[in-house]
Amino acid sequence: MFGLYRQFTIGRYTKAFLIKDKKSCTSRSNLKAILKEAFKKGLIDSAIGTTLEKNCENPSVKPVFIKSLKEIDSFEPFFFIHGGQNSILKEITQKYSFEKLGVIGHSCILDGINKMQYYGIGSNFAVLKFSLKIGIGCIGALSLEGMNCLLKEKKLPQCDFDETFFKKGRVFISKKEPFAFSIEEYYYYLNEGCKVCMNLSSRGSDLTFVPYMEDGYSLCFVRTKKGLKLFENPDFEVKEAQERNITEVEETVKQVLKKNIENVLERAELGVPSNKWDGNRFGKFSALWNNIYAENIEEEVF
After folding, report:
1. For the chain, how many structural domains are there in total?
2. Which end of the chain has fewer CB atoms at under 10 Å, N or C?
């Protein structure tokens, strides 16, 4: 049986950095600093992500297409919300002629984009010119209803939140003052699809940005040479991460993965599919999990 080794929980990486925006000290501003650096260094000329549409009775997530460096600050909050990026790829491909497209998203988004690069969009194969993939380290997403239920259970005020990050094995939902929750409390309200995810660290990206906070710094795992260019004399503060920073993130990811694996194995045994996995996929994972000879598990995508 393969174990929850670092190769599986975090994936292969060449460098790990702590980064901090010079003007603000939030995980959101730190991620934006990386994106701006990618524009300034010519690694990308456009980017896709998501934002939260609040100008309506029922707030909703929508995909956004950033066509220049100046547009980045037009969207608040930016890129920390799941879903929607893939839905605008066909329109972007047909309407625009950008050559260096960047994508910022969680593993569920990046996995879909990787498949589109191989299989095309719809019946017409379209060349997707992705130049940089920035993955978001993720421990699962809550719906707006789930978030409200969590706040209600803890007898906390209902409010719009700015961002979610984790630190020292706890999840923080931040507005003006961050609210802290245990992994167990947070996990109970996760979307069902997130409870079968095996790629919390966005393997397959050029770099993974982790919404982990320590004294205003966030953690980045650099996986490719292209990703490493972002950290050469950048406009944000950067220093090498210490082993304790990496271990702290790894242990948090392990907690969620253990729960996800239990959920997957139970579904495989009962033959109950989910909105992301069918019976064949459950069976394949169950067989691999129980195969004592399986070693190179990072190549398997779940």
Report:
1. 1
2. N
